[in-house]
Amino acid sequence: MIYHLVWFKLRDDVSSTDKEFLKEQMEGMIATIPEVVELTCGEDFSGRSRGFGWGLFVKFKTREDGQIYDKHPAHRAFIERCKPLWTEVQALDFETSS
Hints:
This protein has 98 residues and is α+β, with helices and mostly antiparallel strands. It has a domain at 1-56 and 89-98: Alpha-Beta Plaits (2-Layer Sandwich). The protein has helices spanning 16-32, 63-71, 73-82; strands at residues 2-10, 38-43, 54-60, 86-95. It has a four-stranded antiparallel β-sheet with strand order 2-3-1-4. Helix 1 packs antiparallel against helix 3. The longest helix is centred in the N-terminal third of the chain and has 17 residues, at 16-32. The protein starts with a strand and ends with a strand. The mean pLDDT is 95.
């Protein structure tokens, strides 16, 4: 399995409405990108995230599925619609045998 983890540092002036929009846009990708096995997201509650206040978790069966996701029009549209909400993004991808 392939695990794709993304952390978003949001702008200071992002409203609760903006955060709901971000969540809806993230969650909307699971319905439109067949290669996504699992997708979940949410806001940090621990305060240990060093300013990265939102996280996205996406699971794929293969590396190729992750590459398809990366180039998929729905993923690209998500980035274009939501990138004004964040100032920084970090991503980590790893593979496991289960």
